[in-house]
Amino acid sequence: MSFRFEKLNIWHDARAFANLIYDLTALFPKDERFGLVDQLRRAVVSVVLNISEGSDRKSDAEFKRFLRMSITSINEVVTALYLSLDRKFIAKQDFDKAYDVANKLAARINATINSLSKKQ
After folding, report:
1. How far is CA 66 from CA 40, 48, 83, 109, in A?
2. 86-91, long-range: CB within 8 Å, 24+ apart, which pairs?
3. Which residues have C-beta within 8 Å of that of residue 65, sequence separation ≥ 6?
4. Residue 53 to residue 62: CA distance in whole angstroms
5. Whole-number mean pLDDT of the chain?
6. What is the three-class DSSP state of 100?
7. What ranges in 35-91 are assigned the alpha helix state H?
8. How far is the C-alpha of 58 from the C-alpha of 95, rounded, in Å?
9. For the segment 64-85, what is each residue's pLDDT rounded down to a tens digit?
10. Which backbone phi and psi does 83 adopt, to 5 degrees?
11. How far apart are CA 53 and CA 88, in angstroms?
12. Which residues contact 2 (CB under 8 A, 6 or more apart)?
């Protein structure tokens, strides 16, 4: 048996994004463990969890609502990445890479929302 979300490319992309953020935050100062590290990790986990949770909802309208929540969590990750760059916890090249991944993921999720809207 497989779950619907396992068939979604956006779910796989979101997992990869989460792993990227976990790898980046592993290098943060220890005193940020309960600050930006925790916030970044919770926000990026929310992206992938909302995709999986929404995929099993009874309507496409509900699924779209969860996909929109995933995008808001991506916005939160990007803002925290800016703060991390400001504090010099990450290098500009790492920020740029994570930013690019976030931007592409948000676009793919938006495309999924649009395709669900066309079905209705």
Report:
1. 19, 10, 26, 10
2. 87/36, 89/27, 89/28, 89/29, 89/32, 89/36, 90/24, 90/27, 90/28
3. 54
4. 10
5. 95
6. helix
7. 36-55, 60-86
8. 37
9. 999 999 999 999 999 999 999 9
10. -65, -40
11. 34
12. none
Which residue, chain included where needed, has tokens 């993921």? 105
Using the predicted structure, report yes or no on whether residue 119 has a pLDDT greater than 80: no
Number of domains observed in the structure of the chain? 1
Sequence-separated (6 or more) residues with CB below 8 Å from residue 85: 92, 95
Helices (H) and strands (E) in the chain — how many of each? Answer: 4, 0
| Tokens linked to 23 | 């790898």
C-alpha span between 87 and 107 (Å, rounded): 28
C-alpha dist (Å) from residue 78 to 33, 90, 108: 18, 13, 16
CATH number at residue 58: 1.20.1440.60
Q: What is the pLDDT of residues 38-58, one digit of tens each?
A: 999 999 999 999 999 999 988
Query: Which residue in 58, 49, 40 sits closest to 11, CA to CA?
Result: 49
